[in-house]
Amino acid sequence: MKKLVKNNVNWIGYIDWELEQFHGDDYSIINGSSQNSYLIEEEKTVLIDTVWAPHRFEFIENLKSEIDINKIDYIIVNHGEVDHSGALLDLMKEIPNTPIYCTANAIKSLEGQYGKHNWNFNIVKTGDSLDIGNGKQLVFVEMKMLHWPDSMATYMTGDNILFSNDAFGQHFAVEELFNDKADTCLLNKEAMKYYANILNPFSPLVSKKVDEIVGLNLPIEIIAPSHGAIWRDNPLQIVEKYAAWSKNYQENQITIVYDTMWEGTAKIAHNIGRTISKLAPDTVVKIFNCAKYDKNEIMTEVFKSKAIIVGSPTVGNDVLSSVDGWLHFLKSLKFKNKKAAVFGCYGWSGEGNKVLKERLELAGFQVIDEEIKSEWNPSEEDFSKSEALVSSLIK
């Protein structure tokens, strides 16, 4: 069933309440998600994106129940990733000559994934436009690396809708579609999680693209992303958030991340947490065992933090594999302007702290010298070192 967005624009996507993982198992879905496709019916009929392949047949049947698909004049592919293009192959089997408008890189993506079928591709660049009748146009804006090289956004004049694709979205199921109908706290949380775990590595490009979009002075009444809620109530609020998030964002928060073998490292983690609350009572403290807690949720807290403290016991001249894997993911997200400290227990050789420091530095963190390195189980002398560590970290 299509749902009205505005005038002759309808949502015709798929709300996925059961989805639990995305990008393989690399992104956790806690509050559902959606694949948003949009149908424009002016003098020309335009389909903007499709849905993920598991829902392709339901999508096509739904589309057929609403329109004669042979009357689709244009298909816009804002991004070739399979969660946006998964129904395209089967749809094009039925309407093979329909013109597709996309970037040059999107053609590489689509043909690489689905093979070469001599589809009627039309390459567009920033500023190119397509007349859809009734005095309205679609204007294309390349969004390279937000978050793939092929990404773009499409702006509809007259109705002043920005179809922003992955930018400004969230993995969040909102049956009522719009941000003013969603739980605001959950919406903002999921929008930040999406940015921190997917878009943060491209923050310099995000900052430039936000400036470019603002500089176009386009009246934007609705921002319609490819996942999650559609922004119609003060839609530029999410643009303002992206502007802030893209500039080495941090709040007055310190996040402690650890794993432990026989609870010694855990005891140090919680002692450090209490010390932060004592020395800096206005600072928010979050403590996570990375082997037990969702890594994407932890990374969202790291994104908010001005500093992190990471702990692991020494195991086999290294650190626990749970911590090592977490640090690998941390490095890929390219956080900037954040400090770090390390701690851990050891029984014999004690290389764990050294490994933690090296990997945090490789991840772009400014690692302080102060540390807690406890032989066997932490003693009161070890716990007393928390004050020096915390004082150096917050100074």
Description:
The chain is α/β, with parallel strands linked by helices and 395 residues long. It has 2 domains: 243 residues, 4-Layer Sandwich (Metallo-beta-lactamase, Chain A), CATH 3.60.15; 141 residues, Flavodoxin domain (Rossmann fold, 3-Layer(aba) Sandwich), CATH 3.40.50.360. The chain is built from 13 helices and 23 strands. A 7-stranded mixed beta sheet has the order 1-2-7-8-9-10-11. A 5-stranded mixed beta sheet has the order 12-13-14-15-16, with no helix packed on it. Strands 18-17-19-22-23 form a 5-stranded parallel beta sheet, with helices on both faces. The chain starts with a strand and ends with a helix.
Features:
alpha/beta; Metallo-beta-lactamase, Chain A; Rossmann fold; 2 domains; seven-stranded mixed β-sheet; 13 helices; 23 strands
Brief overview:
The protein is an alpha/beta fold and 395 residues long.
CATH architectural name of the largest domain? 4-Layer Sandwich
Which CATH class of the largest domain? Alpha Beta
Count the beta strands: 23
What gyration radius follows from the Cα positions, in whole Å? 24 Å
Q: How far apart, in Å, are the first and last alpha carbons? A: 57 Å
Count of individual domains: 2
Summarize the amount of helix as a percent range: 25-40%
What's the overall average pLDDT, rounded?
96
**Main beta sheet, described?**
7 strands, mixed
Q: What strand line-up does the widest sheet have?
A: 1-2-7-8-9-10-11
